[in-house]
Amino acid sequence: MSKIVIAIDGFSSCGKSTLAKNLAKKLSYAFIDTGAMYRAVTLYFLRKGITDFKGLSRQRVIDLLKEINIDFRFNESKQFSDTYLNGENVEDEIRSTAVNNAVSALSQVSEVRAQMVALQQQLGAKKGVVLDGRDVGTVVFPDAELKLFMTADPVVRAQRRFDELQSKGVEISLEEVKTNLEQRDYNDTHRKEHPLVKADDAIILDNTNINREEQLQLALDLALERI
Ligand code: C5P
């Protein structure tokens, strides 16, 4: 069997990571959560007290990026990888409200994008990978053998994300979740560099009315046709 690259892009909280993780597991492929990388960089900047990303000079961003090392390590109990920032497991902290609110602004900075894209290309160079993000099929791996573009009704997305946060004990209102999603969707689709856009050859997967198992089966069938 040949190994392929599977790119899963789409709006925030569409279940991209869940699908990507499960698909990678079924195919024994590596899963690369590109959003987690932007989140880890954001966490690093926030910890340094930096919140005005636009006010940073190019050189300052480059210098800060040099201080950051991101990697993924397999977590036996979860059976999935956790995100590490300079050797520290930050899997939970990168999903915090503070990071949620800042990540799409920092993701607009060119130097950050250039470095993340290069790292993602390096991680996926040997193929046999499923990546999820916003620009995987358009910028990171434009030649990916399978590209999925995920979408769902914004109301359904907000409710799912709210339920997930509640189950983790995060105190947040449905309204706040909705506002954050709308803001991120707006930033991600309107930024100058690498905006979220469907690749011409991507297959749309609208999961408003289908469950996780159905999505996985659909994606798996599409992947197996290409392997
Ligand atoms: O996928 P996730 O919601 O974790 O991504 C967090 C944020 O990271 C997105 O809202 C987007 O601003 C940014 N991102 C990006 N390009 C990617 C993946 C994520 O700009 N490939």
TrEMBL record:
This protein's UniProt keywords: ATP-binding, Cytoplasm, Kinase, Nucleotide-binding, Transferase
GO cellular component: cytosol
GO molecular function: ATP binding; dCMP kinase activity
Pfam families from the UniProt entry: Cytidylate_kin (PF02224)
Enzyme Commission designation: 2.7.4.25
Chief location: cytoplasm
SUPFAM superfamilies: P-loop containing nucleoside triphosphate hydrolases
Source organism, top-level taxon: Bacteria
Cross-referenced InterPro entries: Cytidylate_kin, Cytidylate_kinase_dom, P-loop_NTPase
Any single GO BP term: nucleobase-containing small molecule interconversion
Enzyme class name: transferase
NCBIfam families linked to this entry: cmk
Protein name per the record: Cytidylate kinase
Source species: Acidiluteibacter ferrifornacis
